[in-house]
Amino acid sequence: MPNGTVRSGGRERVKAAAVVMLAWVALLWLLEAVDVASGNALDTYGITPRDVGELPDVIPASFLHFGFDHVAANTLPLLVLGFLAAVRDLRRFAGVVAVIVVTGGLGVWLTAPAYSTTAGASVVVFGLFGYLLVRGFVDRRPVDIAVGALVALLYGSILWGVLPTNGAVSWQGHLFGLMGGVLAAFLFRDRPEPRADRFTV
What we know:
This is Rhomboid family intramembrane serine protease. By secondary structure, the protein is mostly helical.
């Protein structure tokens, strides 16, 4: 394949990943604006634990927030980690996010304090952190190991968020989001192409 074609494909992936993440973050801000304008009507789609009727809210909860400060806190890490995870393959990225959202949401539903409501994209932030951290080792790709090391350097301190040190923050969402990201790294790992045996006579 000509080098120009390879470079062009790389640029297209970078552009597509950037567009997806910018659109995602814009959606989060738009949803919060709608929530504020409606008197916090969207907050009802947060997760209330161990209520079977709340199980569908496992999905939308990762796209909703409790105030603009909450959205702002998640915006930059989501942009950075999401871009790094999406730039290679958007279809894989969609699957990874789905695993993180469901795993993190179900973890919150099972373990959060009674009568609480949990929402926020930090489930995805922690999940993408976990995914990027282990992906290179799972796929045995030196470039991705280097990306994981960079992510650990930039955002390693967020691991404190999986500990129950702040009653106003869902450590359950952080912990199970992180676990979902590690799970996704294994579920969506590179699989070697099957090699046909060749014999000579």
